[in-house]
Structures are given as C-alpha cells and as structure tokens.
Design goal:
The protein has 183 residues and is mostly helical. The chain is 74% helix and 0% strand. It contains seven helices and no strands.
Length: 183
Amino acid sequence: MDPPAARHWLGQLRTSVHGERERGRAYQPRFTRDHLAFSWLGALLSLGLLGGLSAWSGYLLMAAPLGASSVLLFGHPRSPLAQPRNIVLGNGLAGLIAWLVVSGGWGGAWGVALAVGLTIVVGQRCRCLHPPAGGVAFLGVFLKAGTGFVLFPVLSGSVLLVLLAWLFSRGVRGASTYPVHWL
C-alpha cells in the first residue's frame, strides 16, 4: 500500500473509531463519585455479610453468579434487570433448569449450553431476565447440581442479597433507592 493510500485509510479508521466512541459515551450511563463509593460499599458489605452468614450457619449462601448480581444491584440498581423479581426468580429458575438438565443426563458443554439457552428463554418468557442467571445455569450443570443447589446458595443467597440491597438503600443516606418495584 502506498503512503498516501495508507494515510487515507488510517484517517478513515480514526474517524470511524472516534464516531463509535462518541456513540458509546452517549449510550452508557454516567456515575457520580458518590454512586461509585456507594456501589463499592454496598457490594463489599452485602457479600461480606453473605460470607459471614455462610460461615456462621454452615449453609453455602454464596456463588460466583451472586457476585454478578451484586454488580447490577449496587452498580445500576434502577436497571430492570436488577429488580427483586429478576434476581430471585431469574436465578431460582436458572438453578431449577440446571438441576433438570443434570437430572436428564445432560452434562459437559452441551448440557451447559442447553441450560443457559433455556434460562434465557424462560427468563424472557416469564419477564424475569437476569444476566447472572446464565452463570447460575452454567455453574449448576458444571457442578452436576442436585436439588440442594437451588435452595443453597441460589434462592437463599438471592433473597438475602436483595434484602441487604434494600436495607442498604434505606440505611445509607445518599444511596440509590432500591427497588423500583418488587414484583
């Protein structure tokens, strides 16, 4: 490629990248410093409490997808995907789907794919879509989960996380109000 053609091509690429960046900045939400601090503090306290309750009670109340749920709960609590219905029902259905897939003899990559795909469709159909629920379905199949997985950590952890977010929003002045709706 000759130098003038290369400069022209690089100029077009630079213009395209700049336009995409501007569209992204206009679309993505902005967060104040206070919101950043409250997001960090809410996730730290709620997951720390879940961990402490797990150790104290002997019941597993934490799983990686609940960390992802806390990102929505505290990072963007007004999101439709962060509402209690979405978290509790979305994660609960995902745990149930994972158990059904494992009970049906599915496992490995195809079992994970089946469980995650069904979780998306059921979440859409029941209007309780929650992205971390895909992680619940994945983890459930990966671990060959039994019925206990649905109760501990999925449902119990989800309910406690929602209650802790609600208490945090009521107890910390300046924190975002949560939830927008319960059902």
